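Sequence design from tokenized structure. All designs in this work follow the same two-part layout: the structure record, then the generated sequence. An example of the structure record is given first.
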């Protein structure tokens, strides 16, 4: 079974026990929009939307944003380097991989911020550890839960959140979405969510749980009523999703299908503030020239279609896409026409409201750190700007300390 939340999970999953049945924790959230008011820091959650796209596996930053003007790049990558004549130039130093023609189109419109050399101190080359660091925003393991989960905790404490305020589209729930108070559902796809909510047996069982309040105490009745409201909200979303027809054509691949679903969700769910999406395949240890361009083309084409959809439905002013990978790749190619785990790499922040262009210095291939590109921007500077300037949060609370803002929002 591919579903992250199945009927069996509804029966046994982690949550509040009600009359012997167990409901998913996110169904314990009250479905009402008026809780989107004040965080502990006194800021209001706005109506902007953040889409986070995770490139799992460690995307090769140097073959994504190519430092074509540096001789060292071609010295290090005689087999897999991108010829200068093929590079989609951004300036006199850097250019996109030719597979990123879709992203390049948006860049020329001023809608792509390329942030060079993003990472964190004392980089870790383990996929799992580095991904945990990015998703928790805590390289020293001092902070619990995920950075997005902690953001929603600012609003959820004392006031439960609508279950569709945030949603994950991933085969595994990302650490970024875990929280103390907030509970964020995650599905492998919207189809999986729709099959669960649309399953008569599942819905009947859930509603029967809510209907047993005559046998329960007042505290249990509150939980049951909250779950009933949440189920109603998901049922309404289910119907809205079915009624929406995408305005763009998306490729039938992981990124195309993912961004198509994200567009459907943004278009039909006005309360949604964060959508988290991940796609893999970027661990290119061998035959990178065969696999990496296909992944980049899939990503770039999907992002272009998604941005055009946001423009078509009048949401372009309200939606920003943040793209990251857990680390870049080593500067030198390996013997298998691939690259091994590295450190700093570019991030993208994309949308109508970003400061398009190249941010930060060009990767200095004459001054590597143990064979890796050196960090010049801490990823928490990007998160800090996103939290404070886009999401209406309090980055000091979420990140545990103050970080300067990466200058990426208009």
């Amino acid at each position: 079974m591919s579903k992250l939340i199945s009927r069996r999970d509804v029966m046994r999953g982690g949550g509040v026990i009600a009359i012997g049945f167990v409901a998913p924790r996110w169904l314990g959230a009250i479905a009402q929009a008026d809780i989107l008011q004040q965080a502990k820091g006194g800021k209001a959650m706005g109506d902007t939307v953040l889409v986070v796209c995770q490139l799992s596996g460690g995307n090769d930053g140097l073959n994504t944003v190519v430092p074509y003007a540096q001789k060292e790049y071609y010295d290090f990558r005689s087999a897999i380097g991108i010829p200068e004549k093929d590079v989609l130039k951004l300036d006199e130093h850097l250019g996109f991989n030719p597979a990123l023609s879709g992203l390049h189109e948006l860049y020329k419109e001023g809608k792509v911020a390329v942030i060079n050399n993003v990472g964190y101190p004392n980089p870790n080359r383990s996929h799992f550890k580095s991904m945990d660091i990015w998703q928790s925003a805590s390289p020293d393991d001092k902070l619990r839960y995920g950075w997005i989960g902690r953001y929603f905790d600012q609003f959820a404490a004392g006031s439960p959140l609508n279950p569709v305020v945030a949603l994950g589209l991933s085969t595994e729930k990302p650490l970024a979405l875990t929280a103390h108070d907030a509970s964020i559902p995650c599905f492998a796809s919207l189809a999986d969510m729709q099959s669960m909510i649309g399953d008569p047996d599942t819905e009947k069982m859930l509603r029967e749980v809510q209907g047993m309040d005559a046998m329960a105490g007042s505290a249990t009745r509150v939980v049951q009523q909250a779950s009933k409201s949440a189920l109603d909200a998901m049922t309404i979303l289910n119907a809205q999703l079915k009624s929406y027809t995408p305005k763009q054509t998306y490729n039938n691949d992981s990124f195309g299908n993912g961004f198509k679903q994200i567009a459907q969700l943004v278009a039909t769910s006005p309360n949604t503030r964060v959508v988290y999406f991940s796609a893999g395949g970027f661990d290119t240890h061998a035959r990178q020239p065969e696999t990496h361009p296909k992944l980049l083309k899939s990503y770039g084409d999907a992002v272009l279609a998604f941005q055009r959809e946001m423009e078509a439905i009048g949401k372009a002013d309200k939606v920003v896409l943040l793209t990251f990978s857990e680390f870049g790749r080593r500067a030198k190619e390996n013997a298998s026409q691939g690259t091994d785990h590295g450190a700093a790499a570019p991030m993208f922040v994309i949308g109508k409201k970003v400061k398009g262009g190249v941010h930060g210095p060009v990767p200095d291939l004459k001054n590597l750190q143990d064979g890796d590109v050196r960090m010049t921007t801490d990823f928490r500077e990007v998160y800090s700007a996103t939290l404070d300037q886009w999401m209406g949060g309090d980055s000091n609370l979420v990140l545990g300390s103050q970080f300067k803002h990466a200058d990426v929002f208009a």
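Residues 240 and 268 are 6 Å apart (CA to CA). We note this feature because it recurs in several other targets discussed in the main text.
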